[in-house]
Design brief:
about 525 residues; alpha/beta; 2 domains; 11 strands; disordered C terminus
């Protein structure tokens, strides 16, 4: 018996040792709770003890469901649905954290306004006289431009849609849909430049008559003012008051945009402001230049290039001998302080004839010739009139060797504006600002005209990013879009206009302007 009892005790001891070893192994293997989880377990245990003390009897299923909601971590707000009696012993009074307000994104509405349609087929002596006297209504020229303006073929190389104010769709973009391509490109450059800002972009085009006529531009400006007022009001109801408006006008489309201020005289009850008015390659004329000081324009960018030979050529729709390149003060007109006049340059390095390190000197901006772009190692490739606005597949004088080919300069505005804002404190706002883009060096030089001391170096898009954008854009180029097909469409519109006016003269009728025969 003694031996049997001793054996049983030994067996029990061995079993106890094995159980201890197994428990120790499990403790070593299983993950331990973190301090936060330990606090949570302790919190829930205390909570359940208080619940059991308050409700000693089993509760209905619905009550148990309500109590199951109270599975929270310390320092979090208890939902209102929890029974206060079950929580007053668990949560201190001052542990509630106030709700954090969610930042609403800025909604930027960008409106693109095209320039005039081609006047090349209409440069006869009679038409020149009509243009100088602003008498283009009921002419072959007006009818031809109207037909071109309604021909979707001319929408494939620039941001232009049907006449009027139209939203640009950025979904399922097809090759040749230039408005959608530019909107997507503009949005991507904006997100690259302002990666940390919460911004939502909406894009529109405004299609106007496209005639070289101050009278028609005035009518289109008034119409745009009316349409913009209604659209901005609707967007504010949809997105809230944090809606900002940017209007970009190209060539004489800039004068249409500038003339929006005249629309207030006809529609004084329509009130809104334009946060950014951008004028690209716009012929500056005394008939409308004073409007740049209107208080409805918060900030105005006037962008020009010394490589633009078209901007100043308009002597037909102004009282001056030629249009001006920049805004200048005169008697009765002072250039406003909210106007930034920007000379846009694009500079590239020359191609080396042999392998050498001499191009490293192009990064030495302490050298005046490098800073000013006058070194023999650098070449000025500033944009021309077409390169401001059109894509590279246009037949209209877009250089294949332009450093940013096939991108239009209008798509680079977000990164350009960011560079200017970064060094605004170093710039004299009353002097023209030079933005010298050097794509192969991935930078921009921002300085005042003839200022060799105060300048800033800002990042431009990287070479890899530019190559990526170029590949995307060229995949969206329209098919069979060349000089021949372009000129054929102009010739067809011109011939149809001549036939229409010949028939109208034969029956003694005068055809009203801007009523397209379809």
């Amino acid at each position: 018996m003694k031996n049997g009892a001793r054996n049983r005790i030994m067996v029990i001891g061995v079993i106890a040792m094995i159980a201890g070893l197994v428990a120790t192994a499990l403790v070593m293997i299983l993950p331990r709770p973190t301090p936060e989880e330990a606090l949570e377990i302790e919190f829930n245990n205390n909570l359940m003890e208080s619940i059991n003390l308050s409700h000693p009897k089993p509760e209905p299923i619905s009550t148990m469901i309500d109590l199951a909601i109270v599975d929270i971590k310390p320092k979090k707000i208890i939902p209102d649905s929890v029974n206060p009696a079950s929580t007053e012993t668990c949560v201190p009074v001052n542990t509630a954290i106030p709700a954090v307000a969610i930042e609403q994104p800025e909604v930027w509405v960008t409106v693109f306004i095209h320039g005039i349609m081609s006047i090349k087929p209409h440069l006869s002596l009679n038409n020149i006289i009509r243009l100088m006297h602003d008498q283009v209504e009921n002419t072959v020229y007006a009818t031809c431009v109207e037909m071109m303006r309604n021909d979707p073929f001319f929408y494939k190389n620039q941001p232009m849609q049907a006449p009027g104010l139209h939203r640009i769709s950025t979904e399922n973009i097809m090759p040749g849909y230039a408005s959608g391509i530019l909107a997507t490109l503009f949005n991507e450059v904006s997100q690259t430049a302002y990666a940390t800002k919460n911004v939502s972009n909406l894009f529109y085009t405004y299609g106007w008559s496209g005639l070289l006529s101050p009278t028609m531009r005035y009518k289109d400006s008034v119409d745009l003012h009316r349409l913009l007022g209604a659209e901005v009001e609707q967007l504010k109801q949809q997105y809230g008051p944090n809606v900002k408006l940017r209007v970009i006008g190209y060539s004489h489309g800039g004068n249409v945009a500038l003339g929006i201020a005249l629309g207030k005289q006809k529609y004084p009850d329509i009130k809104y402001t334009i946060d950014e008015l951008v004028l690209m390659g716009m012929p500056v004329q005394p008939e409308t230049d004073f409007l740049v000081g209107d208080p409805m324009y918060k900030l105005v960018y006037h962008i020009y290039s010394l490589g633009d030979r078209i901007q100043q050529l308009d002597f037909l729709s102004t009282k001056r001998f030629f249009s001006s390149r920049v805004f200048k003060g005169r008697d009765g007109f002072t250039v406003p302080s909210n106007l930034r006049q920007i000379q846009l340059k694009v500079t590239k390095r020359t191609s080396p004839k042999r392998r050498c390190n001499r191009f490293d000197v192009t990064k030495d901006f302490d050298r005046i010739d490098i800073l000013m772009g006058r070194s023999p190692l650098l070449r000025d490739r500033s944009p021309g009139h077409a390169e401001f606005w059109f894509f590279g597949w246009t037949p209209l004088h877009y250089r294949k060797k332009f450093p940013l080919y096939p991108l239009p300069m209008v798509s680079m505005l977000p990164v350009i504006f960011k560079g200017i804002d970064a060094y605004a404190d170093k710039l004299n706002p009353h002097m023209p600002i030079i933005v010298d883009i050097r794509p192969d060096q991935e930078l921009m030089i921002v300085r005042n005209f003839n200022d060799r001391c105060n300048y800033g170096i800002s990042d431009f898009l990287s070479v890899n990013k530019l190559n990526e954008l170029n590949e995307k854009i060229m995949r969206m180029a329209p098919h069979n879009y060349n000089s021949k097909t372009y000129n054929d469409h102009i010739a067809i519109s011109h011939e149809k206009a001549r036939i229409i006016h010949k028939e109208l003269r034969g029956i003694g009728q005068v055809r009203p302007i801007l009523e397209c025969d379809r």
